[in-house]
Amino acid sequence: MPNTSMLAAAQPFTTGERDAVYKAIFTRRDVRDQFLPEPIPNDVIRRLLEAAHNAPSVGFMQPWNFITIRNQTVRDRVADAFARANEEAAAMFTGERQSRYKSLKLEGIRKAPLNICVTCDRERGGKVVLGRTHNSSMDLYSTVCAVQNLWLAARAEGIGMGWVSIFRDADLKSILGIPDRIEIVAYLCLGYVDELYERPELEVKGWNRRLPLDDLIFEDRWRGGD
């Protein structure tokens, strides 16, 4: 039996509290280059990282680490590594799609006053981790939950965040001194913004559209074809 002295009442949020949660979810955006130069105060950074650290994790293994990066020289090296990978990525598209890709502005690494690299220590918790016995990727999924917590907290603080995924892991590990055994999950750019797109930028700029939710919901079994 659980120790009832350790349990808290599971009361629903007030209407205002609930609306604030949904507002953070629905107005969160991937910010690419709209960052202001104003630095983020240390106490705000701490709140954001506390929110990330309070994410759920399978087996309560908490596999994440957070590397905060404000040094301009380090960010310049990361930006150069990104630029090399971005050229490779652009070459994978053809025609109009390639032109549209090249028109997207991805300047957050240098422009945002704070970068954060989120990693996953896949050895944390030992060889056998509760809940990970049959799906070895649960530690990675748990780390992504920390990223989402960070993103929603940033939105609540009026801070924009962008996720940079175009780089070679080896380049980033070399720049940041990350051991080979550690997995890089996310490289994030954070900073204050004075405006956000009403819809996701890639939707606004015609790259893709949000899929209808009803097309993605199945009941009892898979209904999406082979």
Task: Characterize the structure shown.
- There is one protein chain.
- With 226 residues, the protein is α+β, with helices and mostly antiparallel strands.
- The protein has one domain (30-208): NADH Oxidase (3-Layer(aba) Sandwich), CATH 3.40.109.
- It is 39% helix and 14% strand.
- Strands 1-2-4-3 form a four-stranded antiparallel sheet, with helices on both faces.
- The chain is globular and about 60 Å long.
- The relative contact order is 0.20.
- Its EC number is 1.13.11.79.
Short description:
With 226 residues, this protein is an alpha+beta fold. 39% of the residues lie in helices and 14% in strands.
Can you tell me the CATH architecture?
Answer: 3-Layer(aba) Sandwich
CATH topology: NADH Oxidase
Q: Fraction of residues in helices?
A: 25-40%
Fourth-level CATH superfamily: NADH Oxidase
Largest sheet: 4 strands, antiparallel
Average pLDDT, rounded to a whole number, is 93
Helical run tally: 8
The fraction of residues assigned to DSSP E strands is 5-15%
Morphology = globular
EC number: 1.13.11.79
Keywords: Flavoprotein, FMN, Oxidoreductase
InterPro entries: BluB (IPR012825), Nitroreductase (IPR029479), Nitroreductase-like (IPR000415), Nitroreductase/BluB (IPR050627)
GO molecular function: 5,6-dimethylbenzimidazole synthase activity
